[in-house]
Amino acid sequence: MELEQWLRKYNVKEMVMRDLNFYLSEYKKEDEEDFKDFFRNVVFENIKYEFHSVSYVINTWHATENEQRKYISAKVRLEYEETTFAEYEAIYNLQGEGEDDYLRLV
């Protein structure tokens, strides 16, 4: 499947923003202390979310012979006071299902 067709079919921008909102709400519920530490110097309501990139990845790291892991990676930058401070990455399989996601400081 061509990447641009996949992006339209699954509406990746809407999908990754929905998953980011879910991630943040679960993060706050499950580990409020860590959540507060992560966002300690940020007024949460003033964060801007910028869809950053999407890529088709063929990963052969730790793969056995002829094995490849293929997936879509979508990233959103979190900006506060004109500065990017974190990035959210969501990993989707080729059927449009979420497989993993990460939030990291940059």
TrEMBL record:
This is Uncharacterized protein. It comes from Clostridium felsineum.
